[in-house]
Design a protein that fits this description.
CATH topology of the largest domain in chain B: Methylamine Dehydrogenase, Chain H
GO molecular function (chain B): patched binding; smoothened binding
Distance between the termini of chain A: 17 Å
Family (chain A): Belongs to the small GTPase superfamily. Arf family.
Strand content of chain B: 25-35%
Shape of chain A: globular
Oligomer: heterodimer
Radius of gyration of chain A: 16 Å
Radius of gyration of chain B: 41 Å
Number of domains of chain B: 4
Strand order of the largest sheet of chain A: 2-3-1-4-5-6
GO cellular component, one term (chain B): microtubule organizing center
Helix content of chain B: 25-40%
Structural class of chain A: alpha/beta
Strand content of chain A: 15-25%
Shape of chain B: flat
Number of strands of chain B: 38
Number of helices of chain B: 15
Order of helices and strands of chain A: HEHEEEHHEHEH
Largest sheet of chain A: 6 strands, mixed
Number of helices of chain A: 6
CATH topology of chain A: Rossmann fold
CATH superfamily of chain A: P-loop containing nucleotide triphosphate hydrolases
InterPro entries (chain B): BBS1, BBS1_N, GAE_BBS1, WD40_repeat_dom_sf
CATH architecture of the largest domain in chain B: 7 Propeller
CATH class of the largest domain in chain B: Mainly Beta
GO biological process, one term (chain B): non-motile cilium assembly
Chain lengths: ~180, ~775
């Protein structure tokens, strides 16, 4: 970002661009959450599993433009996540709160992610979405936090939000927090 | 307005971070403080994690703010730890002109005074704890006095690290789980794999049970249960007790790819497609033994004739007793010869004590054709032309009658069948049907028979001294689990690669193939242990809560590499293998002298080299010695038998020793005779341990003294013995036979010196 751009950004004339990595296990609801955030776009009737990754851009009210890298959560594509760690300024980790059995897999992936060399150097914030809260019998955000061992993350800022990807409930709260973190 | 508020908050955050940074730098100056406080932090179970988070999250819809690390250590430590750290840090902070508690309360809106805290902070090491139970079991150990960790516990920790505990359900409603009737099937074809269990006597949903099923006690509540995760998704009542459950794709090009779940029961294979009953296939009838078939054919002809006579009012309508008795004798004779006979014949010869009941039975059943229905005992799947998961496959069906069928979908026609020597209990398959395949059948007589599809269509049989528990086919060899706590590995050429013992009786064995690099197997044992082996190296150990009856590895739910275990009490335990886990041997492999060296490399070579190696394998010292001894014994036995037959049959006298003279005669007119034997040592040497044996056809004569011993026979000495012989009462008059006299020397070699035959006078 050049000086002029920085000046214009500080004046609020142009919006600052922020890269965000959206990760999580397959079937967690990452693409659904992003589709809910896209403005002026018809919601797709059926969401198919993401292959590789997809990029979406949307702007918020916080003078920020988010470029979200929606990564595929399938096991064979999870190795791709780490290639984006140097370039992103925040990570959004989506958890399927209705799937208790896979919480251990999510925890394992989170641990692997946090042990990454690049991520250990970069103290970027992590936003957790406990998705699918509309399904009965799911975990609460505190249970998700316990199942994933989030209390152990002490070297960076994080938060967890209860969301419903279908209605978009709770998603904006999370991105508000992220915007605050990124501004600071 | 909102922007200004958020900027104020950001400024506060920034300020608080700076202040906390200053505090942390001060704390870092006193290393004893941080080390003591961190050592006092208590490890606890995950429940405490939940407690601690629940104090932080009042309302689940609001985002939970996390406090950075430095402030966290200050504000949410364990009571004792915080008190200690405060007492120590307060000195330092006082010196710097700070009040730690007041400062924490000011900079952190979520700050809770120490006396109001209930939760504890976990040490970072618990992040790596595999499960809650494990974390609970770990004790608090002060860092300055590190307690020695037992080796077993250390090993257990490293072992558990590979697996993640996903599900543990105590009661699933499965009453009789067993390996053959469990499968992991993608029932709907949507990528969510289900656990399918055919329960022998599961208490199913009564609403699903039809009145017919309820009336029949043998098949009441026998059902197929489909589990999705921890909940029962579907349940089908099956018409007969199941024996085997497999899944396969019957077509190669039909999309979406939905597999068929096949359930073997009696002579039928019931197929379910997309959670609904789909098709039924019955194995063809087996032809009975020709002699038995002839007997029943005669009976049916006789019954037909008798009925036609009865219609003409000239007969009773029943078969003649002579015909009935003749057929009865023929079937009994067949039964005594050891040939398998049909159930109808069994009932005829043993279930009908008198002629009247036999007559009634024959009149009822003789007119229907005599056929045997095969009973399915095991099933497996053989891919047709590709190793991919959703490739078209065909059924391999083993039966109690010892016949192996290859059934090809979608028409479900028997394309190949082989007859084995014994009922088949387990099946293992390697290869592709259209290329080359090998089937390993574990039979009920404790043998394995390896059937190859090569040109020779050879069948190799290995007999064990113990019954077999299971067979699986890995990439290039078979793993055989025996009931004697032993595991054997055999190549497709029936060479033993290795064998080893396990600590407890084996209950189930399952193939574990995670990716292109790892292909091993899991062995479940009676004591609840499940061992994972790569070749003969133990790579992982898992402890279940009870005796594991059924174990399956594969996709479960949306995850791959899941180990699904069902214990004898119906408890479901699901473990997931970590994605980046490397399964390495726990202990360095100890070379076993009994195992042939280089056998592991066996299958990687070309065919010619493989043959050469197979020769070499036989050439190893121990194997060669054993084989030589076996061949030698065999040869000796054959030679002895041939000599005996020759001696018995020929009429000419044998005289191997020229210095011994034998004169024997039979005197008398019958039915009692007296045999006189006279031996003369005409040589100069003394003979020792000479035996004289008298032999006659036991059906014709009985000899009182069939043999006698001459301990020493000096030179020129003559010995005379006699024995009485009686003709049997049932022997007709005017018939006579021969008496054989053998003289042999007992020593290193039992050689016959003289043999002769004497005619017996007419009775």
């Amino acid at each position: 970002m050049g000086i002029w751009s920085a000046f214009l950004t500080s004046l609020g004339i142009i919006k600052r661009k922020v890269n965000i990595l959206l990760v999580g296990l397959d079937n967690a609801g990452k693409s659904t959450i992003i589709n809910g955030l896209k403005l002026n776009a018809a919601a797709p009737t059926e969401i198919v599993p993401t292959v590789g990754f997809s990029v979406e851009t949307f702007s918020t009210q916080h003078r920020l433009t988010f470029t979200v890298f929606d990564m595929s959560g399938q096991g064979k594509y999870r190795d791709l996540w780490e290639y984006y760690f140097p370039d992103v300024e925040a990570i959004v980790f989506v958890i399927d709160a209705s799937d208790k059995a896979r919480a251990c897999v999510a925890r394992d992936e989170l641990e692997t992610m946090l042990e990454n060399k690049v991520l250990r150097m970069r103290k970027i914030p992590i936003l957790f979405f406990a998705n699918k809260m509309d399904i009965d019998g799911g975990m609460t955000p505190s249970e998700c936090s316990g199942a994933l061992g989030l209390e152990e993350i002490k070297d960076r800022n994080w938060t967890i939000c209860a969301t419903n990807g279908l209605t978009g409930q709770g998603v904006s709260n999370g991105f508000d927090w992220l915007a605050e973190e990124l501004k600071s | 307005m909102r922007n200004s508020e958020s900027s104020n908050r950001a400024f506060q955050n920034l300020r608080s971070n700076r202040v906390l940074g200053a505090i942390s730098s001060l704390l870092r100056k006193a290393p004893t403080v941080s080390s003591t406080s961190s050592s006092s932090f208590n490890r606890d179970s995950q429940s405490t994690i939940r407690d601690s988070t629940s104090t932080l999250t009042e309302d689940s819809s609001d985002p939970v703010r996390h406090i950075p690390a430095e402030s966290k250590e200050l504000d949410s430590g364990a009571d004792s730890a915080t008190n200690l750290s405060q007492s120590l840090s307060s000195d330092t902070l006082d010196a710097a002109g700070f009040d730690a508690e007041a400062l924490s309360a000011r900079v952190n809106p979520f700050y809770v005074p120490p006396n109001k805290r209930a939760s504890r902070v976990l040490r970072p090491s618990t992040l790596n704890a595999p499960d809650a139970k494990h974390a609970t079991s770990s004790k608090q150990i002060p860092e300055d006095e590190p307690a020695p960790v037992p080796a077993e516990k250390l090993e257990e920790e490293t072992v558990h690290d590979v697996w993640m505990k996903a599900l543990e359900i105590e009661s699933t409603g499965i009453l009789n789980p067993f390996q053959a009737c469990t499968a992991l099937v993608n029932v709907d074809g949507v990528g969510n794999t289900n656990l399918v269990v055919a329960d022998l006597a599961g208490i199913g949903k009564l609403s699903n049970a039809t009145s017919q099923n309820l009336n029949n006690p043998t098949n009441m509540f026998t059902s197929i249960k489909v589990f999705q995760g921890h909940r029962l998704l579907n349940e089908h009542i099956v018409p007969a007790p199941p024996v085997a459950l497999v899944h396969f794709y019957p077509d190669s090009d039909v999309t979406p790819r939905i597999p068929v779940t096949a359930l073997g029961s009696g002579p039928d294979v019931f197929m379910y497609h997309a959670n609904t009953p789909f098709q039924r296939f019955t194995l063809p009838f087996i032809k009975p033994h020709p002699q038995e078939e002839d007997a029943w054919k005669d009976l049916s002809v006789a019954v037909g004739a008798a009925l036609s006579q009865a219609a003409e009012c000239s007969g009773t309508g029943f078969v003649d007793d002579e015909v009935l008795q003749f057929a009865w004798n023929r079937i009994v004779e067949l039964r005594e010869s050891g040939a398998p006979i049909t159930r109808r014949s069994l009932q005829f010869i043993s279930g009908c004590p008198d002629m009247q009941s036999r007559r009634a039975m024959v009149n009822n059943e003789a007119l229907t054709p005599l056929l045997i229905q095969p009973d399915i005992s095991c099933m497996t799947v053989l891919n047709r032309n590709s190793f991919t998961k959703d490739a078209q496959a065909m059924l391999v069906v083993g039966t109690e009658q010892g016949i192996l069928y290859l059934v090809s979908p979608p028409q479900y026609s028997v394309v190949e069948q082989r007859t084995l020597l014994s009922p088949i209990a387990h099946l293992g398959v390697i290869g592709l049907y259209e290329k080359e395949f090998t089937i390993c059948c574990a039979c009920r007589d404790g043998s394995i028979q390896i059937i190859s599809s090569t040109k020779s269509k050879s069948m190799k049989r290995i007999l064990f001294d113990v019954l077999l528990e299971g067979v699986i086919g890995l990439r290039d060899h078979f793993i055989v689990a025996s009931m004697k706590k032993q595991v054997f590995a055999y190549t497709t050429e029936a060479h033993l690669m290795y064998s080893f013992s396990v600590p407890s009786p084996i209950t189930a064995i399952e193939k574990v193939e995670t990716n292109s690099t790892f292909c091993g197997y899991a062995v479940a044992m009676m004591d609840g242990q499940v061992h994972l082996y790569d070749g003969r190296d133990l790579v992982s150990k898992i402890s279940a809560n009870g005796s594991v009856c059924s174990i399956r590895f594969g996709d479960f739910g949306r995850d791959s590499s899941c180990l699904v275990m069902i214990t004898s009490t119906g408890e479901l335990d699901v473990r997931i293998l970590r994605r980046n886990a490397r399964l390495l041997p726990l202990k360095p492999a100890v070379p076993d002298p009994a195992v042939v060296k280089g056998a592991g490399e066996f299958q990687r070579c070309a065919v010619k080299i493989r043959r050469f190696i197979s020769r070499l394998l036989i050439g190893s010292a121990q194997e060669m010695y054993q084989k030589f001894q076996l061949d030698l014994m065999h040869l000796r036995l054959v030679a002895e038998r041939a000599t005996l037959n020759n001696t018995k049959r020929r009429l000419n006298p044998v005289c191997e020793a020229s210095n011994l003279k034998l004169s024997a005669e039979v005197k008398g007119f019958g039915p009692t005779y007296r045999i006189y034997v006279r031996l003369l040592n005409a040589g100069t040497d003394t003979l020792e341990n000479v035996y004289v044996l008298l032999a006659a056809d036991s059906r014709a004569y009985s000899i009182d003294t069939a043999g006698f011993e001459v301990a020493v026979l000096f030179s020129e000495q003559c010995v005379q013995r006699s024995s009485l012989m009686h003709a049997r009462q049932n022997m007709n008059e005017g018939v006579s036979d021969m008496v054989q006299v053998f003289v042999f020397e007992h020593g290193v070699r039992n050689r016959v010196l003289i043999a002769n035959k004497i005619p017996v006078p007419l009775n």
